[in-house]
Amino acid sequence: SMDAVGLFDSLTAGATYIDPYSLELTAFPNPSTGSFSVRYTLQTTQELTVELLDEQGRSVEVLHHGMDGSGEHVLRFDRQLVPGIYFIRFEGAVTGRSVRRLVIGG
Questions:
Q1: Rounded distance between C-alpha atoms, residue 60 and residue 104, angstroms
Q2: 2-15 pLDDT, tens per residue?
């Protein structure tokens, strides 16, 4: 199986940015105990999917899918996760793909 670095590389391999400054995102707290928030800022209204993946790259949950306006947005996730490494994948119609690593502690 792929290690976390290899997986991260594969998840980000297709990343393309029309404007690298049009998506700013953070997951906090990181490391987390299972409850976390994802804050992101968009410069442009666009369709966006935010998905939580496990360390094998499998979907755990789609946190958000829909049209978002410009400005700051916050998603909250509050349920128990098995401790380990997770990824948050953003797929934006304008901003392309961006992936962040999230560590869930015990």
A1: 13
A2: 565 566 566 655 55
